[in-house]
Amino acid sequence: MRQRQQQIAALVEHYQSSRYRGVLESADVVMLGGSSECGGSVEIYLKAGEEGRIRDLSFTAQGDIISQGATSMVLEQVLGEELTMEEVLALDYEKFVDRVGREAVGSRTSNATLGLSTLKSAVRKHQRDNLHAGSTGAEPVREATPGSSSSACSATTRSETTTAPGLIGTRRCVPL
Fold first, then answer.
1. Long-range interactions of 25-29: CB distance < 8 A, separation 24+
2. What is the mean pLDDT of residues 29-49?
3. I need a surface site. Which of 11, 19, 31, 171 has the fewest CB within 10 A?
4. Residue 157 placed within a domain
């Protein structure tokens, strides 16, 4: 019982005093993730460093304490441990839920892993973009993960569904 209370307290603390919350204007990738299961959405901002490193991360979110608190926790872990992009992709969802607190999360594992899955999508997008086109210096493309709403596009962007190989059915926000 005491362990569960400590896990809940940690989630609430991260929710109320989220680390790395806010828009990262210099982001190379902005990735929107959401799930109808948890009813929340997270937008991850990733600034790449050299040699597969992550220079900076931030997030904005809507949803419950678990999804927002756990997103704060994963960004703190990645930046605090200075994980590379490959190490982020290797993070195990079950181990992350254990770290957040399985007792506190209960059956809402999709809420707890929303930030991690969106971060992994942002890393894969960065890797894919650098393989194909390299950096163009243009405004970052906002890409929506499956289940997210296209309404997250800003007033200066529009929703577009991509049909390119490997991106079939991918919705993203592109500049007007």
1. 26/56, 27/56, 27/58, 27/140, 28/126, 28/129, 28/135, 28/140, 29/122, 29/125, 29/126, 29/129, 29/140, 29/141, 29/143
2. 88
3. 19
4. no
Q: Report which of 164, 162, 158 is spatially closest to residue 145, judged by C-alpha positions.
A: 162
Strand order across the beta sheet in which 29-34 lies: 54-62, 41-48, 29-34, 142-144, 170-175, 157-162
Angle at 28 between CA 123 and CA 22, to 5 degrees: 95
In degrees rounded to 5, what are phi and psi of residue 107? Answer: -85, 0
53 occurs within a structural domain: yes
Pairing status of strand 29-34 against strand 142-144: parallel
158 located within any domain:
no
Q: In one letter, which amino acid is 174?
A: V
How many structural domains comprise the chain? 1
For residue 108, pLDDT beyond 60: yes
pTM: 0.74
Domain residues for the domain of 56 are 2-145
120-127 mean pLDDT: 96
Distance (Å, rounded) from C-alpha 119 to C-alpha 31? 8
